[in-house]
Write a structure and sequence with these properties.
Shape: globular
Structural class: mainly alpha
Largest sheet: none
Strand content: under 5%
CATH class of the largest domain: Mainly Alpha
Helix content: 55-70%
Radius of gyration: 19 Å
Number of domains: 2
CATH topology of the largest domain: Hypothetical protein af1432
Number of strands: 0
CATH superfamily of the largest domain: Hypothetical protein af1432
Order of helices and strands: HHHHHHHHHHHHHHHHH
CATH architecture of the largest domain: Orthogonal Bundle
Length: 296
């Protein structure tokens, strides 16, 4: 109980640090009620699918083998089939078609395959029993796959970064939206007002996302992605990191969807670090193929 109270206090403290939100008492009250409702439900955060958890554990074990990884993946036929589809997309395919898990692991390596499996398994948690909320979750997932595809491309072009880890960062950047949407049906004023729901998700998803990734034992570099993904003013010393990649990918996705302007990339430190210029398009056939593969 004390731990959940601490989570609530931490989340509300982070939300109150948002300047625009601090002056809107009505919205703050609504957000407080939502966080309390999550608490009443024992703060039930989404769990990482079993196949992803097992694969993640095997990939981190230095004594594990490619056979161990193939066996773990094969226990989930849907993920296995999806992985084979993605592995044979233009992004990964070589001179021949890969027809089984052992061949894919031998060709791509355990690290790449494990990150791909975790990414593909994420689709399983974007669901709801409510048709209205399912539609909202589908939109969230579609945007996440768009950001993930862009992140993969940026990660592949950036020295020192791993493209699959960048892609995973893009997929989970708004993971904190899931428990918020799951309780939205309890608040008629929000369930019937998509703009209000989007606004509340925008305010709350980062701190809740941090709690989810911490519970999943994800690395700090991805927790930073969740915290900073929608902070274009973020600046730091040193080389570009995964948060920089996702910040730019989010802006690029919004530009592509007509929700932002090319000028929004101007003076963004992350874009400068990555060498991305306003007006530069990252969209190509490979990126679109990857997005469609992730969509499932």
């Amino acid at each position: 109980m004390e731990n959940r109270e601490k989570i609530i206090a931490d989340i509300m403290g982070k939300v109150r640090n948002e300047e625009d939100f601090a002056h809107d008492a009505e919205r703050e009250q609504l957000v407080s009620r939502i966080v309390r409702r999550l608490h009443e439900r024992q703060f039930k955060l989404p769990t990482l699918p079993d196949v992803a958890m097992n694969v993640k554990t095997i990939a981190q074990d230095p004594d594990s083998s490619a056979g161990d990884l193939a066996e773990a993946i094969s226990r989930d036929p849907a993920i296995s089939a999806h992985l084979i589809q993605v592995a044979n997309s233009p992004l990964y395919r070589g001179h021949y078609h890969m027809e089984n898990l052992n061949t894919i692991i031998a060709r791509l390596g355990m690290r790449v395959v494990s990150n791909l499996v975790v990414s593909l398994a994420m689709r399983q948690i974007f669901h709801s029993r409510s048709k209205v909320l399912t539609r909202h979750l589908h939109e969230l997932w579609e945007f996440s796959t768009q950001v993930a595809s862009l992140s993969h491309m940026l990660g592949r072009k950036t020295r020192g970064l791993d493209a699959e880890q960048a892609m995973l960062g893009g997929l989970i950047h708004n993971i904190g939206a899931l428990p918020i949407v799951s309780v939205a049906g309890d608040f008629p004023e929000m369930a019937g007002d998509p703009e209000l729901l989007d606004s509340v998700v925008s305010e709350l998803h980062a701190p809740i996302g941090e709690e989810i990734l911490t519970a999943w034992n994800f690395p700090d570099e991805l927790i930073t992605v969740v915290r900073e993904a929608e902070n274009p003013a973020r600046d730091h010393d040193g080389s570009p990191d995964y948060a920089d990649v996702v910040i730019v990918a989010v802006i690029q996705a919004r530009i592509s969807n007509g929700d932002a302007e090319e000028s929004d990339l101007q003076d963004v430190p992350a874009a400068e670090k990555l060498g991305v210029e306003p007006g530069e398009s990252l969209v190509d056939d490979e990126l679109e193929a990857l997005k469609q593969s992730l969509m499932g």
